[in-house]
Amino acid sequence: MTVAQATLLKNIPSRVDTNITLGMIKTGKVGPQHLQALKDLTLFNDEKISDWLDISVKTFRSYKKPNSIIKARIKEHAVMALSLIKHGIEVFGSQESFVNWLEKENFFFDKKAPIEFMDTHSGIKFIDDRLTGIEYGDNA
Questions:
Q1: Segment 15-22 long-range contacts (CB within 8 Å, at least 24 positions apart)
Q2: How many CA atoms lie within 13 A of 91 on its CB side?
Q3: What does DSSP assign to residue 106?
Q4: pLDDT, tens digit, for every residue of 32-44?
Q5: How many CA atoms lie within 13 A of 63 on its CB side?
Q6: Backbone angles phi, psi at 13, to 5 degrees
Q7: Buried/exposed 33-55: b ≥16 CB within 10 Å, e otherwise
Q8: More confident residue, 140 or 121
Q9: For 83-99, what is each residue's pLDDT tens digit?
Q10: CA nearest 79: which of 130, 136, 4, 26?
Q11: Which is a Pfam family this sequence falls into (predicted)?
Q12: How far are the Cα atoms of 8, 17, 41 from residue 13, in angstroms, in the given order?
């Protein structure tokens, strides 16, 4: 993880928290750097991340440019996903281990990969709850 990524994550909640997320959006603390961080921290391609955000690849790429005007729902989704990623890195100890877990089929996700649930806020919250379970000794 780079220094810039660590600095950005420092201001992201360690758990999916709608109150903090809303505050960040309303105070203008979310921008293109958060969308770029989604890509950098997961190493997923633009297509995968734009699917999570329910936007086109072209729109995702334009939102990553400086001074972009990003819709509030996209900012919200990005912060929630970054919170999840931060929590996952804390639980698994590395980006790579967390991403590997995200991509593996899992009993707790109806034998689907957790990553398949990243396209909704409730899905992100569900994954985050499973991470908390893992922290406290529940099966992965």
A1: 15/83, 15/87, 15/128, 15/132, 16/80, 16/83, 16/84, 16/87, 16/124, 16/125, 16/128, 17/83, 21/76, 21/79, 21/80, 21/83, 22/76
A2: 27
A3: B
A4: 999 999 998 888 9
A5: 25
A6: -60, 150
A7: ebbbbbbbbbebebeebbbbbeb
A8: 121
A9: 999 999 999 999 999 99
A10: 26
A11: Xre_MbcA_ParS_C
A12: 11, 7, 15
Furthest-apart CA pair in the chain: how many Å?
43
Q: How far is CA 51 from the centre of its chain?
A: 13
The total number of residues written for the chain in this structure? 140
Strand-pairing partners, residue 134, are none
CA angle centred on 42, ends 126 and 99, rounded to 5° = 60
Q: With bands split at pLDDT 50, 70 and 90, how would you rate the model's confidence at 2?
A: confident
Q: Are 89 and 57 in contact (CB under 8 A)?
A: no
Which residue ranges make up each domain of the chain?
3-135
